[in-house]
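Example record

One chain of 410 residues, shown exactly as stored in the release files.
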Amino acid sequence: MFKLWRIAIRDLGRNKRRSALTLIAVMMGLALVIALHGFEMGAIQGAVETNIRVQTGHVQVRGESYDADKVSLKWEDLLEEPLGLAAQAQMRAEVRAATPVLWASGILGTVEESVGVRVFGIDPPSEMAAPFREGLVAGEFLAPDDRGGVLISQRLANNLGLAAGDDVSLLINTSGEQPDEATFTIRGLYDTGLPAFDEATIFLPLAKAQAFTRVGERASAVVVLLHEQEDAAAVAAALHAPGSDVLTWRDLNQLLVEGMESAMGMLYMMYLIVMAIIAVVVANTLLMSVFERTREMGILAALGMKGRQIMTMFIIESATLGAIGVILGVLLGSLGVYYLATEGVYLGGDIDMADMVSADIAYAETMYARFQWADTAVLSAVCWIIMLLASLYPAWFATRKEPIDALRAL
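Predicted structure tokens for this chain:
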């Protein structure tokens, strides 16, 4: 076997240009797959995690009849004792935070312009409000007992020509048949880096939102954040009670999850095409090598080398090319992922993300890749195996020549 390795390595060096081009093809193909996979997975995972952090939480407890699409404020659709449910959830070790929220729809207006918005009633000191506290760019954050303040985004303020300290009118749906309207002072401006979310969402303190919408102490949901995302199903099962509906982050981000599955299906098809191109390049390289070494094959066969040994020699050549190409491809692909993970791909500027993406999907202006070590190992192994399979036909073809015919070849 060692002699076969020596012959195979020597033969790879005979035509250095062809071997180098094959290595480049393998390296570039695998690097492209690794970098693209890392970026796509990073964008999808980042969107899911951001959506969990700013909107859905890992688990939500809602009233059994609550319809999120209608943003219902009817008493029978809301949670009657949200503070008790939040306290119950907070007692579990898996839970990082649990807080009631109230959702409503409204129209934010100035003297010259108005725009439809989603109104989030939140508990300002809660963990759920952390992304907006951290994203504060002007003014001050809401206080729990604030009865006249509202928090809007920097993007929305720019669109309406507003600043912190300005007054705006807010028309909002209520639990009754008639909406209500009041004037609020903009306490502060936030920027989460999520264009679609920022343009459509404003915040009121939970107590003020409850009073404004006339729902008493009821809430639309209790939002639960966990230490570990994998605990969502277990926590949801523990919090389930008659008259309530408990949803996990998968249920709440169904559109994103389905989009992720569809995107990955298309990506895997593209990966197969790239791998097929690599296989054709490798097979072509080995076939050319077979044609150039016909006399050598005849001499080796005449000296007693068996067909399976000749076949093994070509497979060794392919395995060696594949191993070197895979190593270089992983290194280059990892550098690509590292660049995309640190610099990201900016999708803002001329592209209006707020018009392209629903406010329910938290896609940021800049998307980043993530290292996927397990997937990289699988893709590398698949690439190497495909190269071995691609070498089978040239290796088999090399064993079909009779020694006397091979020796007569020019």
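Notes: Residues 349-358 have pLDDT under 50 and may be disordered.
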